[in-house]
Write a sequence for this structure.
């Protein structure tokens, strides 16, 4: 369990607070808007009304004691930038800041953010990959060069085993798991027989994955 300071309770901040609660983390939520703070009370450990750009207020929070500080302000970049800088000045161990534009991400990183999250861009990329193909069900980009895809079993694979198809040698991809009827089988063995109603999770270099997915 981690202790999290979450500043900004707009849509992104509220969703993050709810998920952090589901994951059993302790969350102190902060926003200037009293209504937002009140609405967040059911799914955070504690909540305060306050301005993240106020140096005295930030100092009063004891940010050094939080494992993670999240600046979820999305509608006021100046406030987001100032809050990020103040958190690092007060000794926050790790600051994650929300960006809404590429240039915002650069400035946030230069002014104290340890990492940035760019939800609109990240969701747009995911949706473009996910919905541009009929047989891709999920997608995770691990690095610029490597990804994980959940995809349908190719019809030519049905009834054949991993070793028979020589998946790794022929396609240069790794099968991390298969899923059938809600049941996940991690790291299927060489004798696993592929079924028409299952999906596979594949890991590999993007150029090899694209060759496989669009063969």
């Amino acid at each position: 369990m981690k202790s999290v300071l979450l500043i900004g309770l707009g849509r992104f901040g509220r969703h993050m607070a709810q998920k952090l609660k589901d994951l059993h983390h302790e969350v102190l939520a902060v926003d200037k808007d009293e209504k937002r703070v009140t609405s967040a009370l059911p799914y955070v450990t504690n909540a305060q009304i306050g301005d993240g750009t106020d140096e005295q207020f930030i100092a009063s929070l004891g940010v050094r004691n939080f494992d993670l500080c999240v600046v979820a302000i999305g509608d006021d970049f100046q406030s987001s930038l100032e809050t990020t800088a103040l958190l690092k000045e007060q000794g926050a161990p790790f600051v994650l800041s929300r960006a809404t534009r590429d240039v915002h991400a650069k400035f946030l990183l230069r002014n104290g953010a340890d990492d940035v999250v760019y939800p609109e861009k990240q969701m747009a990329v995911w949706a473009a990959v996910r919905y541009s193909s009929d047989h891709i069900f999920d997608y995770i980009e691990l690095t610029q060069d490597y990804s994980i895809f959940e995809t349908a079993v190719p019809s030519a694979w049905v009834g054949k085993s991993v070793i028979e198809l020589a998946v790794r040698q022929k396609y240069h991809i790794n099968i991390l798991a298969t899923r059938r009827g809600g049941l996940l089988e991690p790291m299927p063995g060489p004798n696993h027989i592929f079924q028409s109603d299952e999906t596979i999770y594949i890991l590999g270099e993007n150029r090899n994955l694209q060759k496989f997915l669009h063969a």
